[in-house]
Amino acid sequence: MIETTALSPGLGVEVTGATDLLDDALVARCAEALKWRGVLLVRGANLDDAAQLAFSRKLGEVVSLGGQEIFKVSLDPSVNPAAEYLKGTFHWHIDGTNDEVPIKATTLTARHVAMVGGGTEFASTYAAYENLPDDERKRYDELRVVHTFEAAQRRVNPDPDERELAAWRALPPREMSLVWRRRDGRRSLAIGATADHIVGMAPEEGRALLDGLLEWTTQERFRYTHEWQVGDLVVWDNTGMLHRALPYDASSQRTLHRTTIVGDEAWA
């Protein structure tokens, strides 16, 4: 018998009792739970790459980069050539803030886990916005924010050389509403490590506002921390959830396999 249990009061749901994750009725139920709870967990799913891709395709079109649909998340350069950039994922972020249409959802399966650290945290920008005082919601509704890849990378490397800086700035900035008015009527916050500045606001004032909003959004009541076990499947709504990896030793062999689902709603 399939059952669902809340992972935390504010977000997340665990699915138990599922024997066939590719069953259309089950996938539809998972998609609905994901919409309203933001994070979906199936412990011990033990999906191989083919099964993970098949499940992902039930949720939408899978992103392919250079012909690759499975991305290996590891700090080991021999496993992941982009390992150095992954250090930026230790900070709260939303994937695709520099794209016109962000990723819709992400799936991760755990192949190796760290003995110490290496969990993944999520925070609901839906719940954070909905629980703001009325006067703050009205203020933020009118603001626009600029996201840059550079802003996130400077958290890891605050003193880049010219080559690094040029590479970061090759990805153009993206301006959007601080409050994302969704087509279904809900609203979420466009914040995180890539949030560089507020349009028309003094840098110090804008930075204080963005830092304060991030602190508000990532408080415990809007947050869920996942401690990985080998075989876990976790799926999240990238458009409404901040996420970050908790630090772990690069020698731990922690390896997750990731797929990403093509988005269908542009930033406002």
TrEMBL record:
Q: Identify the residues that the record assigns to the TauD/TfdA-like domain, covering every copy.
A: 4-260
Keyword Nucleotide-binding in annotation:
no
Question: What start-end ranges are recorded for coiled-coil regions in this protein?
Answer: none
Q: Which InterPro entries match?
A: TauD-like_sf (IPR042098), TauD/TfdA-like (IPR003819), TfdA_dioxygenase (IPR051178)
GO terms of molecular function: dioxygenase activity
Does the keyword Oxidoreductase belong to this entry?
yes
Name this protein carries in UniProt: TauD/TfdA family dioxygenase
Q: Which family does it belong to?
A: Belongs to the TfdA dioxygenase family.
Q: Which UniProt keywords apply?
A: Dioxygenase, Iron, Metal-binding, Oxidoreductase
- Annotated Pfam families: TauD
Ranked from the top, the taxonomy reads: Bacteria, Bacillati, Actinomycetota, Actinomycetes, Kitasatosporales
Which cofactors does this protein require? Answer: Fe(2+)
Superkingdom of the organism of origin: Bacteria
